Each structure stands twice: as structure tokens, then as C-alpha cells.
């Protein structure tokens, strides 16, 4: 596998897992990796003969499985954030712009399903002023947002020098 | 007037039995919805029978506020109950890795919830298809270390066709050395056991 693309994918994966907010989709990485995996798998199914080749095939397959693991983890982390914050994401153009086309489609279907479910079991029987899923009062906002105040670990890549973290502290 | 006691009861029951999906408590949902409507008609009565000036008195304003806040709280509790069950239902799809709900769980679900499961299954399937059929429900816990693993069959499953095209007969108490990708779903369903 291209070392560069794979290392970038690992970085994207770790960032996505650790960040509470959804990050821009790695559109320059995921499709290419998926394509390469497909190529390698086609290559493998055509070459299954000598025992030397068998070892090569075996190593290739393990590598493919491990790359697939990273991609699966990455996509799952994103789907989980989409499900958690679907109203926030769909209401906010800047955030929904970070999703891939298919993720956006998923978010919309998910929103429709949840709304239909809540409406049919509860909300439709309620008085009109209580039918909303996006009420906002001083105590509570029905739209869940990612917690941007949660703590994360960071690794410093280049010397930056002094940096003021929180002016209020 | 109960003002939310039933709603708290409903959520307390959920809190006690967290993992397994309990039977859908349609009665509680109905009772709480009726309470909301009852409170609403109380508020409507007050608003009808008093002039706008009178309604500004703290006595009446608070009356309306208390009723309305109770209505909102009941609504939130109901939505929380439904949402919690939906999370558990989604969890089923991820844990089992299949599109079929086991019968013993299905009896505990409201038909609308069963419909949600199939809608969720469909949207998940569409998404997975769009990423080259990558099954996202595999490898949930750790990076794969081996291509092949040893498994023991716990229940008779019949024949399994592996990726390489071979057919293996999975009879109870037999052990096999198989490709991880072929057997992982069966391990998750509890039919096979991974031997270390």
C-alpha cells in the first residue's frame, strides 16, 4: 500500500476517534484506499499457485484486513457522530458540508426515520404546540451538539513556542 | 393530577434493566400522553375563562406555567424512553451483524420499532454498499491479528460456504480452523466459539 496514503489515513482515523465534533471527510484517502484494496483482492484471486506465492498472498491478505480495519473504524466513528448529532448536523450547513454524499444521505434517512417514529408513537397525539423535535428553552436544547468543551490529547508536531490556551483561566 | 410521576416511573424501570430490551410499555406511554392532554385542557380552560389582564396575575400565570412545564417534562420523558429503546434496537443490528431480529426479542418490540429496525437496516446497508460493500459491523473490537482462527461449534448450523468456495459442515462440538472473515458473524451470534 502507498505508505503516504496509509499514514495519512491513520492520522485521519485517530483524529476522528478522538474529536467530539465530526471532521471533514477524508475524500482524498478513503476512495483511493478502497480502490487499492479492490485491486489487490483481484490480483490475489488470480494468483494462487506456487508455495512462494502462497506466502506472498497470505501476507497481502493480512495487510488488506488490517487496512480494512482502519477504514471500518474511521467510518464507524463518523456514523456514530452522525447518529448522535443528526439534528445539529442537518441544521448547520457548514457541518453538513463535512460529510460525504453517502453520509449525508444516511443522515437524512436517519432523521426521517426517527422523526416518523416519534411522530407516530407520541408527537402526533400531542397538542400542536408540543409537536416539535427541536424545542429550545433556557434549560434545555433538544438538538444535541457535540461537547466542544471535552478534553482531548494532542501531539505537538512542530515547534510553536508559547501558546495561550485559555485566556479566562 | 400526577404531574410526571408516571413518567419518572417509566424511566426508572428502564434504568434498572439496562441491557436487555424489555417489553414495550404501551400502557405507560398511553397514560402519560393522556396526562399531557389532560393538562393541556386545564390550561385551555384557564385561558378561555379569564381575560388577558387577569392572566397576568401571578396566581394564574403560575398555574399555567406549572401545567405547561409538566407537559413538557412528560414529553421529554416519553421521547427519552423511545430514544433509549431505539438505541438498543440499533445495537441489535450492530451486535448481531444480521438483518433478522431473533424471535424472543421481537415479541418485546412495538410493531413501529420493528419497522424502524428494518429502515435502519436498509439505510445502513445502502451506506455500506456505497463503500464497496465493506461490512462495517465486523472487527468491532480490535485489529485483526490472524487470517485463520480455530473455532468450536456450539450448535448445529449445517453447511457453511467459505469465501474460498469450500463447504464445511458445522456439526455441534466439532472444531474447525477457518478464515476469520467467514466465521466472525457466527461467533457474534453465539453459534461458534473462538478457541485460543
Describe the sheet with the most strands of chain B: 3 strands, antiparallel
Helix-and-strand structural type of chain A: mainly alpha
Tell me what portion of residues of chain B adopts beta-strand conformation: 5-15%
Strand arrangement in the largest pleated sheet of chain B: 4-1-5
H and E order of chain B: HHHHHHEEEEHE
Distance between the termini of chain A: 46 Å
Spans of chain A of at least 5 consecutive residues whose pLDDT stays below 50 are none
Please work out how many helical segments of chain A DSSP would assign: 6
The poorly predicted ranges of chain B are none
Shape field of chain A: flat
Radius of gyration of chain A: 22 Å
Count the DSSP helices of chain B: 7
The computed structural class of chain B is mainly alpha
Sum up the structure in keywords:
heterodimer, A: 169 residues, mainly alpha, 6 helices, B: mainly alpha, three-stranded antiparallel sheet, two-stranded antiparallel sheet, 7 helices
Q: Quick gist of this model?
A:
The complex is a heterodimer of chains A (169) and B (196). Chain A contains 6 helices and no strands. By secondary structure, chain A is an all-alpha fold.
Give structural notes.
The complex is a heterodimer of chains A (169) and B (196). Chain A is built from 6 helices and no strands. Chain A has helices at 3-18, 30-46, 51-84, 86-91, 93-96, 101-121. The model of chain A has no long low-confidence stretch (mean pLDDT 87). By secondary structure, chain B is mainly α. Helix content of chain B is 57%, strand content 12%. Chain B has helices spanning 5-16, 26-49, 52-55, 58-96, 103-106, 111-130, 180-188, and strands spanning 148-153, 158-161, 167-170, 175-179, 192-195. In chain B, helix 4 (58-96) crosses helix 6 (111-130). Chain B is elongated, with a radius of gyration of 26 Å. Chain B starts with a helix and ends with a strand. In chain B, 18% of the residues are buried. Chains A and B meet through helix 2, helix 3 and helix 6 of A and helix 2, helix 4 and helix 6 of B.
